[in-house]
Amino acid sequence: MTKEYIEVRGAEEHNLKDLDVRIPREEFTVVTGLSGSGKSSLAFETVYAEGQRRYIESLSAYARNFLGQMDKPQVETVEGLSPAISIDQKNAANNPRSTVGTVTELHDYLRLLYARVGTPHCPECGREVGEQSASNMVDRILELPEGTRAKLCAPVVRDQKGAFADLFDELVAEGYSRVEVDGEEYDLAVEKPDLDENYNHTVDVVVDRVKVSHEARSRITDSVETALEEADGVLKVVLPDPPEGVDLGSETRSTGALGADGDDAEDDDAADRLVVSFSEELACTHCGIDLPEIETRSFSFNSPHGACPECEGIGETKEVDPDLVVTDASKPLKDVFEPWSYSRSYYRTRLDAVAEHFGVPLDTPFEALDADVQDAFLYGTTEDVVFKRQTKNGTRRKEKPFEGVIPNLSRRYVETDSEGTRDHIEKYMATTTCPACEGSRLKPESRAVLVAGTSLAEVNRLSIGDALAHFEGMEEGMTQRQRTIAEEILKEIRARLGFMDEVGLEYLTLDREASTLSGGESQRIRLATQVGSGLVGVLYVLDEPSIGLHQRDNDKLLDTLEGLRDLGNTLVVVEHDEETMWRADNVIDMGPGPGKRGGEVVVNGDVEDVMSEPRSITGDYLAGRQAIPVPDERRDADGHIHVSGARQHNLKDLDVDVPLGNFTAITGVSGSGKSTLLHEILYKGLVRRMNDTDVNPGDHDDIQYEGIETVRLIDQSPIGRTPRSNPATYTGVFDHIRELFAETKLAKQRGYEKGRFSFNVKGGRCEGCGGQGTVKIDMNFLSDVYVPCEDCDGARYNDETLDVTYKDATIADVLDMSVEEAYEFFEGHTGIRRRLELLMDVGLDYMRLGQPSTTLSGGEAQRVKLAEELGKKDRGEALYLLDEPTTGLHSADERKLIDVLHRLTDAGNTVVVVEHELDLVKNADTIIDLGPEGGEGGGQVVAQGTPEHVARQDDSHTGRYLRDHLDVDLEGPRAERERERAALRERANERVAELRGDAEADAEAAAGDD
Which of 18, 48, 13, 30 is nearest to 600 (CA)? Predict the structure, then answer.
């Protein structure tokens, strides 16, 4: 029988303490607890890792050689495991060729659709083109009314210069007597056309003149085949007096009175004629362009068969930017061009010559020059300029056009073999949308294939929500053949779009680069892919899927997770979101504290069980026994940063004022433009103005600011790329610790300086492992094994260095201490304790000082950066920008973070946070709520003001959910839900009071017995 539980026994991974736990199968289980309490160690490093390892071990040794191997977790046994799938927050891809369409495999179905039912058009003139057999052409001709007169012609010359006398002789020799030259008919037996060889001409051989009838089918077929043979697969049918409403379904051109070409006809017969062209190949007979065969790879921008040749399928090109070449137009002409130093003779010679050519002094400000003179300096001249160069034989003169500063840089960037020169020129280049493909990444021929009148490039620009609407009912406009081919393809396309819409990603465009997605967005994309797979009996392990998701969309996500469970799958979700806990079947609360104080199961049951457990800090917050308070008053602004005309991505010419000296939260539904405003406009715009750097901000008109001395972005990027980086080195506390060890008596006797106590340089470190502490053993087709270094036993230092102790602890012992332990250990050393206290203030008291930075979560890395910023001696007047700092934080840790942000603001700084977590949002002085929707429906300010003001705005999605956290009346279904949950809280709190009363009574009784 299938086990009802996944049973974990003896788990000791990381800080887990010989843990035993039962996880119900085919249920939705949330693993929660304080940061560092062991949630991920249980869910990912133990349960998922063991499930994945067992699957890989079931494969052959040959297959395992090609797979990433996984270490056996530190656990006695795990029973009842299903095949495990991990959906974590790693970015989908860093490859610029990866888009939302490609990572969801939706682009593969779109390529198939366009290759099989797409209608090709000429990329030059836009006419529909197609390949047809001779019999197809005959059928089309016979569709004309009975008795219609037609000339069947072979276009042997199409828009070419020449007199073609030899051609006319050859045609006569082959038995042809009539030709049409530039629309005029000639009888070669009577006269041969006398053509001007300097003009383009079109020569059509009249193969036959027929009256359309089914009896003439054999004759028409012979004539069509002859014409195709003469003209390399092209046939032209001329109708001198066409019936009304003729449509042969091919490239058709009328002339004169009926014409669209605008050619004047010389007689009435010519005025009414109609010309129809057919081709055996995929070609535009009007433009003379042969088109390649349509294949699925024709629509792949990762293949040379489909990629734009200019940008090679990237959609962007690097070009020299005039704004980076001339950053200050008020400078004199000789100093205005940043890449060209006037002190170098080559540049001086050219600037002198061009200035003399236009008669302008070199000390003239660039902005004072006429526009055409400015363009001449930047882009070159068409007329010759006299360049003079002094040599030992006198002055040499040379006359030639001036190349221009920008063309010179562009040419040298392509031609140079010097990396230094290329790096220098890149400083003055900006990434711009490819002008050839307009960012679509595809070649012209691929962009000209249409399905339902829309190209693939246009579809890729749609958001997921708009694309879903676009593909609904598309079959109605198709032929029966197209409908049969496209039916299954469209079903898959709509299903995948629908799954992504369900998890709240309707605002993402299909051509959005995967590298620009947040961790939460990439996780939900993978979640949508798994929903679409329809697997049953699988164990899904998810890492905080609610990150980056607005409360409005959270219900969609939870509906999706419940749908996965209802299929018969087991869900284990690491999460801090309270709404997720309320809707889960089971909650495992880890703790009771972080780090070494955690690693145990505090409670394993439903949400009411968690609230009823006195030891559970999670339960305290769920039941309302503890809460993040609302500030008693809001700060007044000391001024504003005024942003005007922000248009980057989906921002709609946005004007917004960010209060100075305030704690401001930028809110809004996912995709409303929050990160664009913070990163692309505020951060890059201010850095560009303050530091005069070459960073390119998002498109906007202006940013006006006063009272800001510096701007600092604290995001979730790693604090180090190697295991050698750790919180102690990043915050600088390790420098003070090494100095302390260097001051010890033994260190002074041996002449050890503080460098001796670094594991990154030779001298004090263990050379057996290079200061790493571990040595990698290559196990061929098994996973690599990391074993403690035999020389130092994992201590990182050599024996001589470890002889030096401070309070009986070596430098290796100190690195193995938690922040809290180190704080107690270094009592009396204010410099060390001050920095450690800052780490404790941001909730990292459990973290080991020497923990490799590569093992830190995004939220932990961000808080280490925040602690490092707090450690700087600052006069205030700094602008701190944070992007979702509550990522990975329990409510108790979030409370500490909010206190730190208030401290930063009280010190005279300005703090701006992009955030969805409403406990933090309600603590802000000002909310800037963007929306009203995501993607194209966003980019506007919906509401701005205090949290209380925004909560009362009915058109603000954030405001409606903020009412739950403020003293604002609720109404409707949410009010009913809150009443039900309040009753559960009351019942749980009564139970906790009873338990605590019993515990106190037991304690008093025990004291009395003593």
Answer: 18
Express each pLDDT in 578-605 by its tens digit.
999 999 999 999 999 887 788 999 999 9
Helix (H, G, I), strand (E, B) or coil at 97: coil
Q: Which residues pair with 442 in a beta bridge?
A: 307
Spatial contact of 159 and 288, defined as CB atoms under 8 Å apart: yes
CB crowding 758-783: b at 16 or more within 10 Å, else e: bbeeeebbbeebebbbebeeeeeeee
Q: In angstroms, how far is CA 287 from the centroid of its own chain?
A: 40
**For residues 951 and 943, is the Cβ–Cβ distance under 8 A?**
no
Contact between 619 and 603 under an 8 Å Cβ cutoff? The reply is: yes
Instruction: Find the length of the chain.
Output: 1010
| Of 398, 335, 405, 332, residue with least CA distance to 369 | 332
Q: Quick check: helix, strand or coil at residue 294?
A: coil
Q: Which residue has the tokens 């006063």?
A: 706
The span from the CA of 122 to the CA of 118, in Å, is 13
Bridge partner list, 788: 774
Distance (Å, whole) CA 716 – CA 807: 36
- pTM of the prediction? 0.75
Side chain identity at residue 740, one-letter code: L
How far out from the chain centre does Cα 123 lie? 30
Instruction: Using pLDDT thresholds of 50, 70 and 90, give the confidence band for residue 418.
Output: confident
Cα radius of gyration rounded to whole Å, the chain: 37
Q: Does residue 285 register a pLDDT over 70? A: no
List of residues 6+ apart from 288 with CB closer than 8 A: 158, 159
CA distance 45 to 16: 11
